Amino acid sequence: MTNPIANSATFKTTPKWKKAFFSFEALLVVVLVVEIIIFNSTGTNFTTRDNLFEILRFSVVLGLLALVMTPVILTGGIDLSVGSLLGLSAIVFGKLWRDAGMDPWLAAICTLVFGAVAGGLNAVLITRLRLPPLIVTLGSFSLFRGLAEALTRGVDNVTGFPESFLFLGQGYLFGVIPAQLPIFILVAVGVWLLVHQTTFGRSFRAIGFSPEGARYAGIPVERRVAFVYILSGFMAALAALVYVAHYGQAKADAGSGYELLAITAVVLGGTSIFGGIGSVHGTLLGLAVLAVLRRGLTLSDQPAELGSILTGGLLLAVLAGEVLLKKFSSRRARVKTNAQVSQITPTT
Amino acid sequence: MKKYFREISVAVALGLLLLVLAIFAPDFFKPTQLLTILTAAAPVLLAACGVALVIMCRQIDISIGSQFALCSIFAGMAAGHGLPMPLVMLLAIFSGALFGAINGAFVAGLGLPSIVVTLATMVTWREALRWWREGEFVRDLPGSFQWFGFSQSTGQIVLLAVAGVVFLILVFALKHVSGGRFVYAVGSDAEAARLAGINPRLVTFCVFVLMGALTGLAALLNAIRFPDVDPKTGTGLELQAIAAAVVGGVAISGGRGKLWGVLAGVLLLACIAPALVFLRAEPQWERAIQGSIILLAVAADGWRSRKGKI
Amino acid sequence: MTKLLVSLLSLTLLLTGCGQKTADGGNEGGGKQITVALMPKSKGNAYFIACRKGAEEAAKELNVKLLWEGPTESDPAKQNEIVETWITRGVDVIAVAVENREGISSALRKARAKGIKVVTWDSDAATDARDLFVNQATPEGIGTALMEEAAKAMGGQGEYAIITASLTAANMNEWQKHIKIANDTRFPDAKQVALRPCDDMKDKAFSEATALVNAHPNLKLILAICSPAVPGAAEAVKQAGKQNSVKVVGLGLPNENKRYVKEGITPSVILWNTMDLGYLAVQTATALARGEVKAGDTKIQAGRLGEMEIQGDNVLLGKPFVFTADNIDQFDF
Predict the structure, then answer these.
(1) What's the pLDDT tens digit per position in C260-280?
(2) d(Cα B85, Cα B105) in Å, to the nearest integer?
(3) Which residue among A162, A178, B176, C40 has its CA within the 20 to 30 Å range from the CA of A245?
(4) CATH architecture for the domain at A48-328
């Protein structure tokens, strides 16, 4: 599909892209600033230290999913199963702790391993059987949620976790900093370093641009792709732990709909859904724009439906803006506009 | 034979399920039960055909459930205001086509990725509807609304006939009309299609509009089964339709698929939930079973094509 | 870059336009007016629309600012997020129809620690997480009433099936528990043969009910415990031509069920008066914020409802109401 000439053209224009990207993220920063200015006047207690930390606190679970969704989408894939896997991991953790009598921290480690294995299932189907990620994860989306419901008959709700564990989601360090924030920062820095500062991570973008090209360049495409899905599963389990600690319960419906929110944050952050283009800091900005919008509207006594409608509108506006931008930077014009869903497949 | 492997394997799976039911729960084949399953599946079939066309064109549409709900509500309210049913039908189809045109304009006109565009419109339409109706049924519809004013059995036959005729027209058009061949061409290789003198953007736009119109018709056919309209209708329809298309052998990478396969996929998925009731299965397994079927169907596909390669 | 600036500007204008509108709405409620934040279990549910009507009526009478916000998606964590946002915003009293007892109690305790009064209505949180509970009917009351009506409709014996919203809905699982207790202790000849979820959608309830009546030839009754399922199941019975052998009983709104109650498919629909429930929730919340009522009182003055009884820390609305063909025309919600 991609010939070497097209590739070399792409490489030539890379600095230009970096520039365009810089400006795309600048666009998000401006949107964010505008939001803050508006909500500062309409919202009650919007610009306070407490509110800042609360916004961060409520973004952690979704943020973990979005952070790792970034490399997944960078490789040209997608993972629709993260929300369901969050629910299943929460149940696994709850069951290990309550029914198997494990120490909560040991159970937590087992849950993380479980998440990685479940992500491995996606990875095997995608890389070994060469199936499109959209379809594989659509299937595991139903499967994981279904298993969570089957294990609990839908009704069982594990509660009464020890205080020391709940501190992870409800406590405050030094009385102000939410306890889950350091985890989030650690993961954010880790994923950023991985994607932007290592050759290993940079190969994700190469794969997303052209899996064949990456293969010719000597990148073990299957193994790298498998890695991001396993990482995605692992992170869904970590998010599940924070979720359980935050809400004090493990129930089969935990995390419903989070996959779409995570994808929205990633795409709003400038990552191309076809892979190859995007950044972790862009995702963080996209996440911030969404979180500030949601909370700002509630603090301004506006209904949540408006928030969702604005999110949808913002997504379209930002993307349309990006396309128009692309049209005007002439040399880039036709490389990616006709990109297709098929490129979600990592291999051809 | 090999060419139709997927279509045949889905049909075989459906046959096996029906065989199991025939042995263990013959009541499943009572006419009232079968007619209900078929009349419930017919609107889903039209929606799934629309989605299948979009997928063949290498795009995707996940806003179909929200479009479906809005069209149902429009149809219900129009009928409630005393519009004659043929006009109500046209209105449903037209509003569906309009929603499709909006998606199409963003996807074909601006070249935006369809999964993101339809993700945005899915959320926007659904939330706008919730804001507007707050979950209230459209009630007190005139007698001419349910079953088009016919008796129940005539109405069911009319519904199936309308859906069947539209389905056959689609099957025929996709195979024998140049516009239908264009869909495969654009889905296989948009650039090659362009060089061959096809306008890929126009084809893509038309496919989205057609899908919207089919969704509008499906919404109407679904709504007339009941005396009032629930604004939550169509929630999750996007997954049902995509799953039916994929299980039925439509390749997500575009360019390949048969509407007959989609028909088999729709029927297979439509039979699972009632089959579980008849087989006295515990309800909490339902979702796990559905997920496994989708994964098995695509895994079989992947396994076969892999073997074929080696 | 210039074009970028242009698009930025237009986006800014767009956002500012939206923002200006919200500004007007937000600033009206300044001054010393009491702010009552009322949360339903979910928005877009006909049941809670009726509650909201009653709540707005009470807010007008008492001259309080009423905030109405609730989850729009199935995510159980959403109620926590809204409560915590209200804590940051600063409201005088928070009144929640609790979806998930264990999950929300920590957020409500936090609100109380910050000096915000907390009321639960419709369904309760942990007792130390709120000041008062506006109790329209206990899960036990609902479960028992449902089973009593069901037993009446099936003559005390035979097979019945339950249609619920989802297998994970906490309140419905609680009702089912009490349905089962009432079934085992008082109506041993009735037998539950199936439980099916309908995703809170009428269309799905219809399909499930059709399969149920055909799969269980001896089925005498469908007990629909979420509101869209009652008309959905009744329509299924009607279309399957089983009006004479299968009845439908459930929790639902009178307007959605009038047709079937009159046709005799649904002998009775159970519900408390939801408008009064919303009305009483706001009356109680305001009285609490103004210090007119406190834990330990035995009665409360609730506007047009007159004097209501408080038992312990529960404000009682009264028994669930049974709508039948004789009285259903008197109600419009």
Answers:
(1) 999 999 999 988 778 889 999
(2) 30
(3) C40
(4) Orthogonal Bundle (1.10)
Q: Which of residues 176-215 of C touch B (CB under 8 A)?
A: 194-197, 199-203, 206-208, 210-212, 214-215
Strand order in the sheet with C314-316: C65-68, C35-39, C93-96, C117-121, C132-135, C314-316, C307-311, C299-301
Q: What are phi and psi of C92, to 5 degrees?
A: -85, -35
pLDDT at C75 over 80: no
Domain ranges for chain A: 48-328
List, in order, residues 6 or more apart from A18 with CB less than 8 Å away: none
Q: Would you say residue A17 has pLDDT above 80?
A: no
Inform me whether the C-beta atom of residue B273 falls under 8 Å from chain A C-beta atoms.
Answer: no
Choice between C290 and A338, residue whose per-residue pLDDT is larger: C290
Q: Residue with structure tokens 């949808």?
A: A312
Domains with residue ranges and CATH for chain C: 31-136+274-318 (3.40.50.2300), 139-271 (3.40.50.2300)
C-alpha–C-alpha distance, residues A180 and A67, integer Å:
15
Q: How many CA atoms lie within 13 A of C12 on its CB side?
A: 13
CB contact under 8 A, A312 and B252: no
Predicted local distance difference test score (pLDDT) of residue C299: 84
User: Mind listing the pLDDT tens digit for each residue in A138-165?
Assistant: 889 889 998 998 898 877 888 889 999 9
A159 and C CB contact within 8 Å: yes
Nearest CA in chain C to B223: C203
Q: Chain A contacts of B284, Cβ < 8 Å?
A: 146, 149-150, 152-154
- Nearest by CB to A42, which of C3, C19, C70? C19
| ipTM of the complex model | 0.90
Reported as a single tens digit per residue, the pLDDT across B242-260 is 889 988 888 877 888 899 9
